[in-house]
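If you are new to this repository, start here. Below is one unmodified record pulled from the training split, so you can see the exact layout before writing a loader.
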Amino acid sequence: MVALASSWWIVVPLGIAAAWAARSASSRRKARERLYDWEQEAPDASARELEGELWGSWLEGWLAVSGFRSPSAPQWFLLFQAGSIAVGILLVLIVTLSGVLDTGILWLEEIPGGLGDLLAPILAFAPWTLLFLAALLPLSRVRSRRRYIVQNVERDLPMALALLATLAESGLGLDASMERVIRAIDPDRPLARELTMFQSESRAGIPRVQCFRRLSRRLDVPSVSVFVSALIHAEQVGGGVAEGLRRQADEVWERRRELAIQKAQTLPTRLAVPLVLCFLPGVFVYTFGPALAQFIRIAEGVVRGSGAN
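And here is the target side for that same chain:
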């Protein structure tokens, strides 16, 4: 049984890591396709050129859109990643060399009915689960920060676009309207910080179209990309900015409403999983646990009586 359980520690972690890497690569590819669809019409700035303007490597870009924009952020991330893996390996060695794992497997094998044979591989794989979770800590931190930025931008963008469209329709210029919008948003919010940086770049002499593209690349949020695409199109063809802003504001509000309806409709399905995994097992244990324990004691008595005879 120990040999069977020890043969899983290579295959299962590699399979989990490969599945997670494939899923992450697919998500990044789809997000990149959505982000740069509008840039195919702009021959002066391709997706690769725009990416090279802001950061040099994929890791640096991933950390930057997640809010970690220090020049030494990639080095610190790799250092923390290596430290997490080292801590996980140390935990595996401590659990394996202490003999607790072998004792637990032997104890499980004594459970009658073959239940111990089913639980022993799970217990043997537990140290490698600790290693896997420890290795995921830096990745989880960056992903949670990225999720926080996206959620806050998606929450603030509809109101910012509506206010920007109203100010533009009243005859105020884009720069003055942007200044009013920045003052209306909490300065600690990600969208307010990026719009402030957009204004600083525009005042520094960078062309407005390029500033919009850099804003889209820094946030890497699909709603912002669509909004920036409309503004760039209006800027290049000389169309009305107010009309484009109003149309984008209405579309963003509509997408937000549809997303809320979609989440409300999928709520019963999402509640089914924690209900089955967390609530029903407790009910089954409370209901059938005493009867099962008594049945096991009776079965043990019968087996011992048959052995004595």
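Two things worth knowing about this chain: The chain has 13 helices and no strands. Residues 1-10, 34-52 have pLDDT under 50 and may be disordered.
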